[in-house]
Prior knowledge:
This protein is an alpha+beta fold. The chain contains seven helices and eleven strands.
Amino acid sequence: MEKAVEKTVTCPKCQGEGKFTVYGSINSVQDPELTEKLKNLSLFDYTCPHCNARVTFDYGLLYHDMDKRIMIYYKRKEADAKKVADMFLGRGIYDVAEDLQGKYLYRVVRRKRQLREKIAIFDANLDDRYMELAKLFYLTKFEADYPDLEAEWIYIYGKDGVFYIAFSTKEGEISTNFDMAVYTHMKEVFPELSDSLRGGEVFIDQEWAMKQMNNRTMGDLLTGAVGSDLKITIS
């Protein structure tokens, strides 16, 4: 895998050509400046040298945190994401080194904002599985508070342990503070997830969270003391 490749791109506004660097991988220890650009998603931004138009170029890459032994692969296409998952799980043509299997935390995501979300969660030393379960609760609250709006996607963002949750809708984005009490309660309700994060599933997303719910309901999961007075406000 080449770490960086400079490509010639065409501005969709003026059709002028320019150079744009595409990164195959970013190491949080070795590339701190690039890591910050990845966290705020400016890594994908390009400013046309001819008309100054700002353009976003989307592409997949690998994020590697050597200190915490975490690898998160962003692949937009489902087929490519599955191939990477097979590699991480040791069932592909090009598997991760045998001595790394079970020692690293592997994740595969298909959206840039999912990648940013995962990085923020792991930077705060939190478990993304409980975060995904907590997001289901917030989605339920959103649907109850805003029945006329449909959440196309739900994201967590923030840093230093302070998080917000955003709902992407056709009418715009709605966000609210993320209450860590919901996260803590999910840890209590799902003790079976207390096993190591490493060596397990690599697709931890809303679909995964729905499977964990089984026959449980949000009413069963949350007591009146947790989340009952939580309000989602438009920002």
